[in-house]
Amino acid sequence: MSDFNIRFIFLLLFWVSENPYQIVAYYPFCINPTLSVIIRSILLSTNLLFLLSFSSIFFL
């Protein structure tokens, strides 16, 4: 594993630990599966955007 991979994994773990609101995306599944899927897709897209922007700053 390269140094970049290790740093990215730590960044990912740190980011997940800093964003517990992700649980909110899974909780409504019990009540309304459709709503949960929509929320999850929105959160996933924002998560990826955040990771891309943050990692580009972090690794440059």
Would you kindly provide a brief summary of this structure?
By secondary structure, this protein is mainly alpha-helical. The chain has helices at 3-18, 22-26, 33-59.
Topology diagram in text:
Elements (H helix, E strand, L loop, with lengths): L2 H16 L3 H5 L6 H27 L1
Largest sheet composition: none
Radius of gyration: 14 Å
The class by helix and strand makeup works out as mainly alpha
Strand content: under 5%
Please give the number of β-strands. 0
Helix content: over 70%
Mean pLDDT: 64
Annotation field: number of helices: 3
Indicate the overall shape.
elongated
Keywords: Membrane, Transmembrane, Transmembrane helix
Transmembrane segments: 35-59
Question: Can you describe this structure?
Answer:
This protein has helices at residues 3-18, 22-26, 33-59. It has 60 residues and is mainly α. It has one domain (3-59). The mean pLDDT is 64. The chain crosses the membrane at residues 35-59.
List keywords for this structure.
60 residues; mainly alpha; 0% strand; elongated
